[in-house]
Amino acid sequence: MSLPHAVLGLLAVAPGTGYDLTRRFEASLSHAWHASHSQIYPELARLQGRGLVQEAGRGARGSRTWAITDQGLAELDRWLVEVQPNRSQRNETALRWFLLPLLPADQRRSALEREIADMLDSTAYLEAAAAGSGEVADDHPFRATAKLGVRINDVMLAWLREQLADT
Amino acid sequence: MSLPHAVLGLLAVAPGTGYDLTRRFEASLSHAWHASHSQIYPELARLQGRGLVQEAGRGARGSRTWAITDQGLAELDRWLVEVQPNRSQRNETALRWFLLPLLPADQRRSALEREIADMLDSTAYLEAAAAGSGEVADDHPFRATAKLGVRINDVMLAWLREQLADT
DNA sequence: GCCATCATGTAATTAGTTACATGATTAG
DNA sequence: CTAATCATGTAACTAATTACATGATGGC
Fold first, then answer.
1. Helix residue spans in chain B (DSSP H)
2. In this structure, which of A61, A71, A136, B67 has its CB flanked by the most CB atoms within 10 Å?
3. pLDDT in tens, B111-125
């Protein structure tokens, strides 16, 4: 279970409110992890209970800003270094691409065309992130993963076009 | 929720028992979807209830062989063509790579080295699958996704090595 | 006879989604 | 004044994991 470490990681970059974290999951972590506010608020409470985050102040509209503690940083490092990652994955896109050969040729072609269009959208989005569009600090190394995403998309796009040509 | 369609897809390739499907998830679908037998048996019962699969015979040790029905094939096609895929994902590897810059340089280097080793293992496995190692029928186009996996791994490996060089 | 593998299920728990519920502030 | 956005939470439900439970067959 990686949600607590995703939250710790985002708070290690900068403190923030639950609402703020929800947007940061969406903006900078959407290719790696997804979490909605209904998961984030209870998780912040649990992490506080474990001493890994603490309230760093309250703002307007009843907002609570959270910061990672030294214990939280230690736990994040431990997880990155010691815990062997769970490589099993569920990826609906990969599942679809795997099953696409089951479709008759004409339906397969139109499905491939839709996938190509979606992939172009995704690449445009990641290129903006790789160029740095304010979601994270300007020179933050996190942008490296967006660049990786662009390269992976290029490979996937080329593959989709080959499949289309072969159909 | 894609589990029912993953099961239908595997049964569209060939009929099989719940036990058999469990192994096929592991062998040919592990890069796209993961499911254990405790999910598969109840799912087969549900699909039977919806008329999308049917029992195609019983074998030794109380085994039940399942086959997809025409209704099941129609549902699978409909899902592939009409349902817009859920692109939100959770990928622990991507999360780790995203958070790696938070580690001090020496720990980051050893973490990157471990990732490189794991990636080489994964590539070896996928290359065997792309060459065709009996998991699916010999000329089955499903092998195309293994080839895509190899190419993606190449890009990821190059990226990891760049990160290591920059650390 | 015993161990590996084949084979099927259920129960308890944890994780994640969707829906419900409420209220403050700000820009137009 | 009103709509968008900021802001936080809980409840109900669905999906997935881990643990429990049992038994057959085949090779050594």
1. 3-13, 18-28, 37-49, 70-82, 92-99, 105-131, 143-165
2. A136
3. 999 999 999 999 998
